[in-house]
Specification:
By secondary structure, this protein is α/β, with parallel strands linked by helices. The chain is built from 14 helices and 10 strands. The chain is globular, with a radius of gyration of 18 Å. The model has no long low-confidence stretch (mean pLDDT 96). The structure holds ligand PLV.
């Protein structure tokens, strides 16, 4: 069996984003993972630790965790059941089936699908693969930072890391990675969209809160409650985590600009992070003294995502531009 399932992804310097940000911008291209997103790092690691003798895995997902679980299960020769909410576009369901997974569509948002996955764990004896809330996932995701450290070399420490937050698994993994390489003083800009903002809501309330609904089109950020570890990190004085929101329009604009300038199509979930650069948010954070000026090289985790194609992009344009 392969040592791990993920790839060491390219770290690209973006000239056009650097010009906008006023500092070198490095893109960690997680869109080029075999499953289309960073999720394979954590899920590959978790499945290797838990799933080898499993009679099957079950994963609840907004789409991308499911893609990673289906890919890994196929490689391990283990059956996979992926439970997705009805918000998942048909293209994702098709891609999951192409990976050999059995797909169940349950409920309106990820939380509903997750309840069904947990039920199947009990009734069918399947191994539960959580999409964001497990220490083994975070340990797997942490490799994204050790790769960056290896690529940038000893003098290449980032000035800040920009990433997207759904349930908080990527955030926890990046914090873990920063700890592993001794970069805990590097600020993290944690991006969400308005309407898929469970981390921002928790930071504002000073406690974890459960959103009433997911109203953003960034469905893969659509967990109603952030995981406890992500909230704990937000309260930790040794870390600097800046939680920020963009609108769906700003996230879509970022997806379109990224496609134009970098020739790569990513999901709205990823557009949220890219919008930190394209919307001018970083400059505002610097003006407010919440990020240093000058800022060192900016590391943007291009988390990727498979829930997008030209048709989906056109649908989003029509929906968000009316
Ligand atoms: N998506 C999860 C959770 O959905 C999933 O099941 O696929 N960027 C992309 C492209 C993602 O797919 C996700 C999570 C994130 C960012 C956020 O990662 P997280 O959940 O670890 O904070 C409900």
């Amino acid at each position: 069996m392969a040592e791990h399932f993920h790839l060491n992804t390219p770290l690209l310097e973006s000239v056009s984003m650097s010009r906008r940000a006023g500092t070198p911008v490095y893109l960690k291209m997680e869109n080029s993972q075999p499953s289309g997103s960073f999720k394979i790092r954590g899920i590959g690691h978790l499945c290797q630790q838990l799933g080898t003798k499993s009679k099957g895995v079950v994963c609840s997902s907004g789409g991308n965790a499911g893609m990673a679980a289906a890919y890994v299960a196929r490689k391990m020769g283990v059956p996979a059941t992926i439970v997705v909410p009805s918000s998942s576009p048909p293209t994702v369901i098709q891609k999951l089936q192409d990976q050999g997974a059995a797909v169940q569509i349950v409920g309106k948002v990820w939380d509903d699908a997750n309840a069904e996955a947990l039920r199947l764990t009990e009734t069918e004896g399947l191994t539960y693969v959580p999409p964001f809330d497990h220490p083994l996932l975070w340990q797997g995701h942490a490799s994204v930072i050790s790769e960056v450290a290896a690529s940038l070399g000893p003098s290449g420490k980032p000035g800040a890391v920009v990433l997207s937050v759904g349930g908080g698994g990527l955030l926890c993994g990046v914090v873990q990675g920063l700890k592993d390489v001794g970069w805990t003083d590097v600020p993290i800009v944690a991006m969400e969209t308005v309407g898929a903002d469970c981390f921002n809501a928790a930071v504002k309330a000073g406690r974890r809160v459960t959103l009433d609904d997911i109203t953003s089109e960034a469905k893969c950020l659509g967990a109603k409650t952030v995981c406890e570890q992500a909230f704990k990190y937000s309260q930790c004085s040794e870390l600097k985590i800046v939680s920020e929101l963009v609108t769906d329009q700003q996230a879509l604009h970022a997806v379109e600009t990224f496609l134009d300038e970098e020739r790569v199509l990513v999901e709205m979930a990823c557009g949220a992070a890219l919008a930190a650069v394209y919307s001018g948010l970083l400059h505002r954070l610097q003006d407010e003294g919440r990020l240093p000026t000058p800022l060192g090289p900016l590391l943007v985790i291009v988390c990727g995502g498979s829930s997008v194609d030209m048709e989906q992009l056109n649908n989003l344009r029509n929906k968000l531009r009316t």
